[in-house]
Amino acid sequence: MANDGMAENLLRRFFKVLNRYMVLHWRLGMGPIGNRPDMAGCIMVLTHRGRKTGRLRRTPVNYALLAGDYYCVAGFGAGADWYRNLLANPQVEIWAPEGWYAGTAEDVSGLPADHRTPILRQVLYNSGFAGRLAGIDALGMSDAALLAATDDYRLVRIAGLEPRTGPGGPGDLVWLWPAAVAKLLVLLGWLWLHDGRRNRSAS
After folding, report:
1. Domain ranges in the chain?
2. Sign of the dihedral defined by the CA atoms of residues 96, 98, 103, 106, in that order
3. Does the pLDDT value for residue 187 go beyond 80?
């Protein structure tokens, strides 16, 4: 039991660091790159408000788009901060390869097993390596084994989607790319001139 708790804490720390990178990845305009189950997994950024602070929070989550609604899971159960925030304020926004949307989040963990299982299976398959880290074989497990392994998971549906535009969305830091390229060109130019002067001095 102690080892299980240690492993979970390590996973939480790993995903905390990874999540910061993924949010930056999206803000730099690279969100759709590698967004596939066989690569990094299907990842969207969920924007929600802190239940205590009221501040906007951004959390990358694996997802599946089914019949026009987005589904994701709280793999660490009902104690996940982002999940608890959704319960307090279900109005959220999502950054996905398909677009930037506002919608309403709802816990649908209570769906009948025959409805819940295929949704869970698709979300977990879409999670790529994250699901495998959690010991989930989304395609190989039986329905009973999958439900047992995800007993503590919370299934969330985001529906009522409305397109969003304006500042503060995905790609808001994309302007850094030309700035970075300009700085790199200046640096290369300086190195070229410096090298040319040194060669002339040596001769």
Report:
1. 2-170, 173-203
2. negative
3. no
